[in-house]
Amino acid sequence: DVVMTQSPLSLPVTLGQPASISCRSSQSLLYSDGDTPLNWFQQRPGQSPRRLIYKVSNRDSGVPDRFSGSGSGTDFTLKISRVEAEDVGVYYCMQSIHWPWTFGQGTKVEIK
Amino acid sequence: EVHLMESGGGLVQPGGSLRLSCAASGFTFSIYWMGWGRQAPGRGLEWVANINQDGSETYYVDSVRGRFTISRDNVKNSLYLHMHSLTAEDTAVYYCATLGFRTIDSWGQGTLVTVSS
């Protein structure tokens, strides 16, 4: 199975400051057709997950533009340009190219 | 708006069986791949099974293959997960989800399955 490794696992952030989460895969996520199915999900406390980013950098409808995704191959990053209180929660990267689809361990974002 | 409502969770003894249901609304259910994921209490996410539009293709993670069966009823707009030979390791919130092309689109609210004697 493809192992997804996130860092850090805990991320205390000051309101208004940037935050960055790294995600590394044990295998390349580049498909033969040029697609890279790397997704980012947000799970707020007590809620189900919600997709923020698909195909590395495509932001979902309704997702604030302070969220951005980047990367290629095996190294990916989710950035929050200015953290707001509503961003508290756990963030997961997920690969959907190799079966079984696998998630990172999750990064807990909290306000300092 | 996509709406997914899971049901059927509860307390079951080790070795027991349970059937989860997911009622879908707000979209054309029959044209979407669907799937189930789960999250053990206080733990991360695990993707469990996928099914194609007419039910002819299914995929399972190794930990449930042979014990779980994903199915769907496109007339009733419903997705199912039949679970057998349950163990404590299957204790989790189970989510159904719509699948896009190589991605998970929308998640339901989840239903809790607890395997305990």
Helix and strand arrangement:
The complex is a heterodimer of chains A (112) and B (117).
Chain A: E1 4-7, E2 10-13, E3 19-25, E4 38-43, E5 50-54, E6 58-59, E7 67-72, E8 75-80, E9 89-95, E10 102-103, E11 107-111
Parallel strand pairs in A: 2-11
Antiparallel strand pairs in A: 1-3, 3-8, 4-5, 4-9, 5-6, 7-8, 9-10, 9-11
Chain B: E1 3-7, E2 10-12, E3 18-25, E4 33-39, E5 45-51, E6 58-60, E7 68-73, E8 78-83, E9 92-100, E10 103-107, E11 111-115
Parallel strand pairs in B: 2-11
Antiparallel strand pairs in B: 1-3, 3-8, 4-5, 4-9, 5-6, 7-8, 9-10, 9-11
Write structural notes for this entry.
The complex is a heterodimer of chains A (112) and B (117). Chain A is mainly β. Chain A is 0% helix and 48% strand. Chain A is built from no helices and 11 strands. The N and C termini of chain A lie far apart (35 Å). The model of chain B has no long low-confidence stretch (mean pLDDT 97). Helix content of chain B is 0%, strand content 55%. In chain B, a hairpin with a 6-residue loop joins strand 5 and strand 6 (58-60). With 117 residues, chain B is mostly beta strands. Classes of the chains: A mainly beta (112), B mainly beta (117). At the A-B interface, strand 5 and strand 10 of A face strand 5 and strand 10 of B.
Global geometry of chain A: globular
- One letter per element, helices H and strands E, the order of chain B comes to EEEEEEEEEEE
User: What amount of the residues of chain B lies in strands?
Assistant: over 45%
- Contiguous uncertain segments of 5+ residues of chain A: none
User: Which pair of chains has the greatest number of interface residues, and how are they split between the two chains?
Assistant: A-B, 23 and 18 residues
Bulk shape of chain B: globular
Oligomer state of the chains in this structure: heterodimer
What is the helix content of chain B? Answer: under 10%
- Estimated structural class of chain B: mainly beta
Extended strand count of chain B: 11
Biggest sheet descriptor of chain A: 7 strands, mixed
- The rounded distance between the terminal residues' Cα atoms of chain B is 40 Å
Gap from first CA to last CA of chain A: 35 Å
